[in-house]
Amino acid sequence: MAFEGLTHKLQETFKKLRGKGKLSEKDVKDAMREVKLALLEADVNYKVVKDFINVVTERAIGQEVMESLTPAQQVIKIVHEEMIKLMGSTESKINISPKPPTVIMLVGLQGAGKTTMAAKLALHLRKNNKHPLLVAADIYRPAAIKQLQILGGQIDIPVFTLGDKVNPVDIAKASLEYAKKNAKDIVIIDTAGRLHIDEELMLELEGIKKEVNPDEILLVVDAMTGQDAVNVAQSFNDKLDITGVILTKLDGDTRGGAALSVKAVTGKPIKYAGVGEKLSDLEIFYPDRMASRILG
Ligand code: GDP
């Protein structure tokens, strides 16, 4: 299960704190050293951990906490609050254009779960009374178009394709025309991924962005890849100025690093989480619920 190691270590630390009654400054610092190690082992970005620990420590050795009747409880509460802040405080809704169609561009490395997420998002938005159109703009990966058509078919959502001989910028452009003519108010563009970030791919994505002026550019990253997910997020953000992140495979045994680092490193919020292979396995990302899950 996700976060298992982190949750377990934090609980051990908190148990020790609770057993102490009154806390000394040293008790707090010792506990913070353990929290720091637990976060690093969970693959949270080093600088994020350092800043987090500094803020929590400063608050926790404040007078209010040390003199309170339940100091351990107060310290745990501070960790919880700061963890929520780290992940963006509140949920980040997607930007719906006042002038339909709303254009959502999904980007990310191959295998991150982009195509699956396109269909999940379409299903989710339709439940919210929208009329999505899926757009197959990955013309390189064999069977990517077919995969999207199959997923679209499963949930009865139309898939726009011009095959794999038309360039993705033109596909994206044509899809907007199609959406307008066919009363589709959300266009979800599934773009190509590569195994690694490469210049050619970025140029193509920049080209699509320029052509369709998306309301959202959501980067799909695999939570299981930890620090790598954060590096990928940073690179895509530098090139494309993404509007948000979707973490996939949070149902797997991810150590948690990506969920806790991405917002702090890129400044961009996590908007959704993929929690399984089924098309209904999508969650809105709530920082407070995620923090509670991590703290156990
Ligand atoms: P793409 O190359 O980025 O388009 O990735 P795909 O959408 O083809 O997904 C790659 C694999 O990850 C597929 O086998 C998906 O079923 C799987 N997958 C995608 N999202 C999730 C998720 O949230 N949880 C789990 N367990 N598997 C996922």
UniProtKB/TrEMBL annotation:
It is an enzyme of class 3 (hydrolase). Its main location: cytoplasm. Keywords: Coiled coil, Cytoplasm, GTP-binding, Hydrolase, Nucleotide-binding, Ribonucleoprotein, RNA-binding, Signal recognition particle. It catalyses: GTP + H2O = GDP + phosphate + H(+). Its EC number is 3.6.5.4. GO terms for biological process: SRP-dependent cotranslational protein targeting to membrane. One of its GO terms (molecular function) is 7S RNA binding. The keyword Metal-binding does not apply. The keyword Secreted does not apply. It is found in: Cytoplasm. Transmembrane segments: none annotated. Belongs to the GTP-binding SRP family. SRP54 subfamily. Part of the signal recognition particle protein translocation system, which is composed of SRP and FtsY. This is Signal recognition particle protein.
